[in-house]
Amino acid sequence: MSRPYKKWSKEEVVRTIKEMRRRGEPLNAGFVARHHPTVTYAARKYAGGWAAAVSAAGLDYEQFRRKCVWSRGKVIAQIKELHAAGEPLHVSRVERDYGGLVGAAAEHIGSWARAIEAAGLDYSTIRRQREWSRATILAEIRRTHKEGMPLATTAEVRRRYRTLHAASVRYFGSWAAAVKRAGLGRLLDR
Questions:
Q1: Residue range 70-126, pLDDT digits in tens
Q2: Number of Cα atoms under 13 Å in the Cβ half of residue 19
Q3: What's the mean pLDDT when you consider all of the chain?
Q4: Closest Cα partner for 91 from 135, 33, 140?
Q5: Quick one: CA torsion of 152, 176, 131, 116, rounded to 10 degrees?
Q6: What is the crossing angle of helices 10-23 and 37-47, to 10°?
Q7: Per-residue pLDDT for 190 more than 60?
Q8: 123 with 91: CB under 8 angstroms?
Q9: SS3 sequence, the chain?
Q10: Is the pTM higher than 0.85?
Q11: Cα–Cα distance for residue pair 136/16, rounded to 1 Å
Q12: In Å, what is the CA distance from 168 to each residue of 5, 11, 136, 144, 179?
């Protein structure tokens, strides 16, 4: 269901929610964020948040809601508390460990980055995801290959170099095309 590179739209989000409901899966934001993060992301991007997406699917989100009812103040307080405790605040870690906090931040503040800033923190020092460009991708392919990264697209490459692989596909259309642009195409079949 949460296949990589799936083409999302509001209609696809709604169809996926209905399919999950038919299978009997929990539809609370925390469960979906942990087990179907791409659905959560697509709901935020195309439907205005998880609660809005569930409502668009013709369901009453209140019957699925778990834990606390969030507000702008509660989101900011939770971020400050986690920061004071030394917890990592990059979005993937928070989505995994703290249920609906990221979704609540998007709903009440607009995005996770804005929520971090509203809590008085510098998002650029917290974010974990790297800013990619064609040049940085090519340089990283060359650097990691020198360190022993195999060039053939394998499950190992996709797992160990997940963000590099995904950025390569996004910017160059495929991993092989990126490797060729890095000047290492002759080594692909070795």
A1: 899 999 999 998 888 888 888 777 876 776 788 888 889 988 889 999 999 988 777
A2: 11
A3: 83
A4: 33
A5: -70
A6: 140
A7: no
A8: no
A9: CCCCCCCCCHHHHHHHHHHHHHHCCCCCHHHHHHHCHHHHHHHHHHHCCHHHHHHHCCCCHHHCCCCCCCCHHHHHHHHHHHHHCCCCCCHHHHHHHCCCHHHHHHHHHCCHHHHHHHCCCCHHHHCCCCCCCHHHHHHHHHHHHHCCCCCCCCHHHHHHCHHHHHHHHHHHCCHHHHHHHCCCHHHCCC
A10: no
A11: 35
A12: 13, 28, 10, 14, 8
Amino acid at 170: R
Task: Single out the residue of 66, 67, 17 nearest to residue 42, CA to CA.
Answer: 17
Digit-coded pLDDT (tens) for 43-63: 988 888 888 999 999 998 888
* Token pair recorded at residue 16: 């996926």
CA 18, chain centre distance (Å): 21
Q: Contact 103/64 with Cβ under 8 angstroms?
A: no
Which residues have a Cβ under 8 Å from the Cβ of 181 and sit 6 or more positions away? 134, 138, 172
How far apart are alpha carbons 147 and 57 in whole angstroms?
48
Through-space distance between the first and last CA atoms of the chain, rounded to whole angstroms: 34
